[in-house]
Each structure stands twice: as structure tokens, then as C-alpha cells.
Amino acid sequence: MECPHCNKPIILNATKTELRKSEKVPLIEMVQSAAKKWKDDIDILKDGSDVVVIPNAYLGDTWHKLSDALKSFNPEWVSEGKESRWVIKARA
Predict the structure, then answer these.
(1) What is the rounded CA–CA span in Å between residue 75 and residue 32?
(2) Is residue 33 domain-resident?
(3) What percent of the chain has pLDDT over 70?
(4) Which of 49, 57, 74, 80 has the highest count of CB atoms within 10 angstroms of its CB?
(5) CA distance 68 to 38
(6) pTM of the model
(7) Is residue 81 part of a domain?
């Protein structure tokens, strides 16, 4: 194989490696990572196989930012006044 610009030979070295099975990251750790910017404003708890994100106080405009950060987990917002929370169901 040659470089198309200077016509010098290109030497390729390739090695075969065994694929490692990737370790599955627990859901709670993925949620904690996604919401780390707001760690002082929320509690993240495990509820069986689900994860619950509970605001410590009224979030104001932060609610939308946090909700967007959690969007990839398809959370359900449970609106119950001071008991409001996001519930993230574990995927099979």
C-alpha cells in the first residue's frame, strides 16, 4: 500500500485481540453520572430495580435542565407536591 500523495509505502501492523465482555454499568450509576451537575439538589435512590430521583427543594428553572439530562432514561415524572420525583424503570 502506498500513500496517494507521496507514493511512499504505508506499513500496517495489526494484531488480533480477544474481545472482553463489557461489564454492565448499574442503572443507578448511569443516572448519578447524568445528574452529577445537580448532586446537591437531588437524592438518587434505588427502589428495587428502578431508580428514583427526588428533588431536595423546589428546582425552578433547574427542573427543565435536569429533566433534559435524564431524558435518555425515559423517566416518569410523578407530580405529588413535596413528594414529586422522577421514576426511572430498569430495562430488561
Answers:
(1) 14
(2) yes
(3) 93
(4) 49
(5) 12
(6) 0.73
(7) yes
